[in-house]
From TrEMBL, chains A, B:
<dbReference type="GO" id="GO:0004789">
    <property type="term" value="F:thiamine-phosphate diphosphorylase activity"/>
</dbReference>
<feature type="compositionally biased region" description="Basic and acidic residues">
    <location>
        <begin position="210"/>
        <end position="221"/>
    </location>
</feature>
<keyword id="KW-0460">Magnesium</keyword>
<keyword id="KW-0784">Thiamine biosynthesis</keyword>
<feature type="binding site">
    <location>
        <position position="109"/>
    </location>
    <ligand>
        <name>4-amino-2-methyl-5-(diphosphooxymethyl)pyrimidine</name>
    </ligand>
</feature>
<dbReference type="Pfam" id="PF02581">
    <property type="entry name" value="TMP-TENI"/>
</dbReference>
<dbReference type="InterPro" id="IPR013785">
    <property type="entry name" value="Aldolase_TIM"/>
</dbReference>
<comment type="pathway">
    <text>Cofactor biosynthesis; thiamine diphosphate biosynthesis; thiamine phosphate from 4-amino-2-methyl-5-diphosphomethylpyrimidine and 4-methyl-5-(2-phosphoethyl)-thiazole: step 1/1.</text>
</comment>
<feature type="binding site">
    <location>
        <position position="90"/>
    </location>
    <ligand>
        <name>Mg(2+)</name>
    </ligand>
</feature>
<keyword id="KW-0479">Metal-binding</keyword>
<dbReference type="GO" id="GO:0000287">
    <property type="term" value="F:magnesium ion binding"/>
</dbReference>
<feature type="binding site">
    <location>
        <position position="168"/>
    </location>
    <ligand>
        <name>2-[(2R,5Z)-2-carboxy-4-methylthiazol-5(2H)-ylidene]ethyl phosphate</name>
    </ligand>
</feature>
<dbReference type="GO" id="GO:0009228">
    <property type="term" value="P:thiamine biosynthetic process"/>
</dbReference>
<comment type="function">
    <text>Condenses 4-methyl-5-(beta-hydroxyethyl)thiazole monophosphate (THZ-P) and 2-methyl-4-amino-5-hydroxymethyl pyrimidine pyrophosphate (HMP-PP) to form thiamine monophosphate (TMP).</text>
</comment>
<dbReference type="InterPro" id="IPR034291">
    <property type="entry name" value="TMP_synthase"/>
</dbReference>
<feature type="binding site">
    <location>
        <position position="71"/>
    </location>
    <ligand>
        <name>Mg(2+)</name>
    </ligand>
</feature>
<dbReference type="GO" id="GO:0009229">
    <property type="term" value="P:thiamine diphosphate biosynthetic process"/>
</dbReference>
Length: 221, 221
């Protein structure tokens, strides 16, 4: 799938899933309609991520859901993932592109227009833009306060690759992100920490789709 | 270089280098006669390790010293390192071999005969065996007490790939490790935390070479 067509993108984080396993969360999110999943789990060993990744690959392939690996190109290749997502402190996008080749999906985090333009110039296929509303589930080096939908709009206007908002987004706050020009939303907590991850995913998908329907032929043209 | 010919193998760890940079430590160790260096630095970001790795590649290539990357195959490829070293919680040796191809050096940590045989069977070119004397510089999942030279001898006898002792080894304690059958010693603190890393390296090299000279045509035949 092309990242332009992702509406809801789940980023895994076992520490937020309560007594459910990451596989349970992903299964429910697939049932609920996610388009992509990112294997993150930074707190676990490479071996654990590899073993989890092999299982995620089976499930996502069967469901037609894209599988992206956070940070590690080697792990992505080892589990035959569709691509890699890197942050500003990971390997540079140009290096990731060289290692993965032209067909893989390469995503990059960006919170400014400058970072976004640089990532696009070096070969990123999509941008994870945020933290839109601030977030409690990412690392401490993330900004505490969100960049807001206005910055998402600036970035979406500045690049031609699709932009996915991330950071504190829920079904209640997804619409302004899409209206601002994001192709979709990436979430951790809104699905992983939800009492019912499947219905939480359905709500997010509906929240993203509505402004897209309304906006068709309208806004941003 | 073949890992059979490594005598002194430096594993980097910035947190033990005091006010010296890792590059300063490596430069001094190269002057003192190391045969290989492993870029470890687990506490730093992939981007930092990449940037440091590019500099280490220049220096080691100029000196004819092998450069190995801990854990990450992608980083090793990005900086054109000679190989990768993995522990029991990193990607499996067979996966590392598949990703790196037949010419790269693949090393694996082992503390038991079973782990050593398995790593060799899956394609490891050398084994880092320990912790020989226990160590304060590795992760908390390392055994607190060392396996001792006797276990090094068991493992060296059980496999045909070269074995390098690691863990708490100093110039004063290196000889029994080599007499036990190790091709050489891998160290962090003995060089990195030394007041003079160059002379510390020279002392280690001498301590490893002496039992080899004495033993030639003698022990273990």
């Amino acid at each position: 799938m092309n990242p332009s067509n992702w509406r809801v993108y789940l980023v895994t984080q076992a520490s937020l899933s309560g007594d459910r396993s990451t596989l349970e969360i992903v299964d429910a999110a697939i049932d609920g309609g996610i388009d992509a999943v990112q294997l993150r789990e930074k707190e676990t060993s490479a071996r654990s991520r590899y073993e989890l990744g092999l299982e995620l690959r089976e499930r996502t392939a069967a469901a037609g859901v894209d599988l992206i690996v956070n940070d590690r190109i080697d792990l992505a290749r080892a589990i035959d993932a569709d691509g890699v997502h890197v942050g500003q402190s990971d390997l540079p996008v140009s290096v990731v592109r060289d290692l993965l080749g032209p067909d893989a999906i390469v995503g990059c985090s960006a919170s400014t227009v400058a970072d976004a333009r640089e990532a696009e110039a070096h070969g990123a296929d999509y941008l994870g833009v945020g933290a839109v509303y601030g977030t409690s589930s990412k690392d401490v080096d993330e900004p505490k306060d969100g960049i807001g939908p206005a910055r998402v709009a600036e970035i979406a206007d500045a690049v031609s690759v699709p932009v996915h908002g991330i950071g504190g987004i829920t079904a209640d706050t997804a619409a302004p992100v899409v209206t601002a020009g994001a192709a979709g939303v990436a979430v951790i907590s809104a699905i992983t920490a939800a009492p019912d991850p499947r219905t939480a995913t359905e709500s997010l998908a509906a929240a993203v789709e509505t402004p897209k329907e309304v906006g068709r032929g309208g806004r941003r043209e």
